[in-house]
Amino acid sequence: MKLSLVSLVTKNVENVKKYLDSLLSQTSNDFEIILCLNGKESENKQIISLLTNYFEKFKNRLQVIYNSKTNSYQYNLLSAFKLAKGEYITVFNTDITLIKYYYIENMIKNAEKYNVDVLEFKPRLNGSISWKPKARLINDRRIDLAKNPLPFAYVFPFIFNKIFKKSLVQKVMKFKLKNTNDTKLCIELNYILLFEAKSYTYLDFKIYREYFPADMWLNSKRVLNIFDELEKYLLNMNRKLFEEITYAKYYFLKLLMTGFLKETSFTYKNIYKTKEEIHEKRSKLLLAKHLELLEKLEAFYKAENYLLTNPYFSRNNEEVTLMLFPISKMKNKKILKQLV
């Protein structure tokens, strides 16, 4: 088995049906599917009923995880890691809006070609956020992470645009999550896997579009806590990656979180009728709390002299220019558009 697909989002019956039908039509069958269901079996009756037919069609290539206790994407992902039979593992959710017949073959081909612990593709977000960011690392280059720490600063902080080697995944099987109240971004596990990896490659093209729902839980304090825990983890492991992770933290909170909270798109107009309905999901209060936290973080970084002493903040690029711009003056800036 070459590839294990893990869906952390398995809630909508219609989406699950389209997803499984699309996977039946792939040009490669050298993959398995692991669906993660939250809640008791009684709460997932419709999906379980639907899956009955697909168990026969996929034979032993379809598995289901029931999580009735901890409603955590990362907890489910760790559980899926333990079941996965593929040589490579990737998160491939049922809410992906379009799955073309060659997607799986393309993923397997690239995973085998580069054969690195972490293979990252350009992320492409759609739904309530539309974003196709510019590359942050050199395309198509194998990086020895023991010699080159750049990916720790510049990796995109999402789990879903990467393919991981099973041998890497096995290293984190017993990892104790600090944050179980999470989102499908799985920020903590994304970095823990990278910390354990030895090799990495970035490919500057997308495989598919990841759906970004309007009701995704965006909590700045929770994200800050995640990065603080990652810093403690590195300290305990005696890993000298402090400059990289402090840069990554500032990038995520000041640029991405701010952009996610204040910028929306409407490529798929059937999600919500009006712009106001999405703004209700990402409320003014949430944004105000985020900006308040960000002002404190900005003051802390200045007090600790990070913006002057951390070499990543001395680089001449668009994201550094934005990060050094005072948060008090960023109200009308289209942050995500400046990062494409």
TrEMBL record:
Entry keyword set: Glycosyltransferase, Plasmid, Transferase
Entry EC no(s): 2.4.-.-
UniProt entry tagged with the keyword Transferase: yes
Pfam families per the UniProt record, alphabetical: Glycos_transf_2
UniProt superkingdom: Bacteria
Annotated Gene3D superfamilies: Spore Coat Polysaccharide Biosynthesis Protein SpsA, Chain A
CDD domains linked: Glyco_tranf_GTA_type
Gene Ontology MF terms: glycosyltransferase activity
Residue span(s) of domain Glycosyltransferase 2-like: 10-119
Descriptive protein name: Glycosyltransferase
InterPro entries the UniProt entry points to: Glyco_trans_2-like, Nucleotide-diphossugar_trans
